[in-house]
Amino acid sequence: MRIRSKALSSTDPAPSLYVAREPIFPKRVSGKFRTLKWYIMGITLGIYYLLPWIRWDRGADLPDQAVLLDLAGRRFYFFWIQIWPHEFYFVAGLLIMAGLGLFLFTSALGRVWCGYACPQTVWTDLFILVERWVEGDRNARLRLHRQKKWDLRKARLNLTKWFLWLLIGLATGGAWVFYFADAPTLARDLVTFSAHPAAYSTIAILTATTFVFGGFAREQICNYACPWPRIQAAMMDPDTLVVGYRKWRGEPRKHSELAKTEPQGDCIDCMACVNVCPAGIDIRDGQQLECITCALCIDACDNIMDKIGKPRGLIDYMALTDEEAERNGAAPRSVIKHVLRPRVLMYSGMWAAVGFALVFALFIRSDVELTVAPVRSPTFITLSDGSIRNTYDVRLRNKDLHPQTFRISVKGHPKFRVQIEGTPYESVDVPADTTVLKRVYIIAPNGSDPVAARSTDVRIWVEALGGGERAYKDTSFTGKGDGS
Questions:
Q1: Is the four-CA dihedral 111, 112, 113, 117 of positive or negative sign?
Q2: CA angle (96, 52, 164) in 5-degree steps
Q3: What single DSSP character describes residue 196?
Q4: Secondary element (H or E) of residue 278
Q5: What residues have CB less than 8 Å from 351, skipping those under 6 apart?
Q6: pLDDT tens digit string along 386-395?
Q7: Could you identify which of 105, 202, 292, 375 might form a hypothetical disulfide with 114, taking C-beta atoms 3.0 to 4.6 angstroms apart as the criterion?
Q8: Residue 40: how many CA atoms within 13 Å on its side-chain side?
Q9: Which helix (H) or strand (E) holds 75?
């Protein structure tokens, strides 16, 4: 057969590369996976909205918010843990753990993160819940959407839905800014219109994006904006458990026009799996980029199988390696055997190693730190008695939640002595959770070896008199060198 193609003339409009989005109206479904999604949605939203309001006593003059990103004070507070700017490697380690966690879960269970815990999925679920509560289940929402004429009822339902979406978006943006300032204080300032403009602009942007992403874009964000669907293929292999359709059991589908004598599969083509899918795909067509592995199609199909008296699992979590065995009547391998395989164990080991390293670094870090910067203009000063004095800027950091007294000492030559500018003592008081800059002098008496030497190695020690913790920095002492 010859296929003829029609050439486009210069007057013909250019074909569109995109199709208009057809809104998806998922049907309500019940089952173990839907229940799991409800629990995860409740926990994640509860943590996000309530965490800034939890209090944690750190002592006087310190913030009592359990989780706080204090940008002005350059601190990150997480319950009893405090991260300083120079300890950003902890944040980097957490990001590495998050990435490895994604690799781990994807290699074991496909896009399970996307289906259950991704913020886009969680907020979309919440928006669909509101939509269903206002407009009804799938059929009612479809009828309302296809109704061309905007009457009073359609306007009322849509305005009510949009208003509730806007409130959710406002709460989302408001909760975000509470992580960067004291939540009760900022809430009062926001209500009285005395907060910083950055707070209002941040809330406005997050409100708008939440409203649009959760209410209108939905699966489009996953399909076009998120890179993870395209990356996940590298994390998966034939042993990865993904949501799939047992075609060898379901086909041919049962249709009324089929003769009773013809062989029929368990699938009755009821479209229940399609109607509940938030991505609007048909899982019976095989694995697709749009599938987020939420498993709602499993719940829908299992409910239908129960009604027609067929065994569950026509749509289920399965691996490609089990297909041939199941076609021949053998039982699939257990979930444990699929999960405990070299790739998953490798990701688990890497994830655990990074986590252990972070915890180890957290527990061995000292509450006493110092930095030393020699002042080399001039390099040294000759005192009236012939002694040589070097000057150093010493920055003392007290990371403890209580005030500390730091004693400064020096090692390198027995005749070295230390003097702190502004005090006759060799100790200095440093408030809790504070850094103090002090000018420290190291003096070598006339006739000593450091005076005649060009350079002498010096180690400056700092000891917390209350807790006994110590820290040091190595530097050098500059003498006359040429003997002049």
A1: positive
A2: 100
A3: -
A4: none
A5: 97, 100, 101, 104
A6: 899 999 999 9
A7: 292
A8: 19
A9: strand 75-78
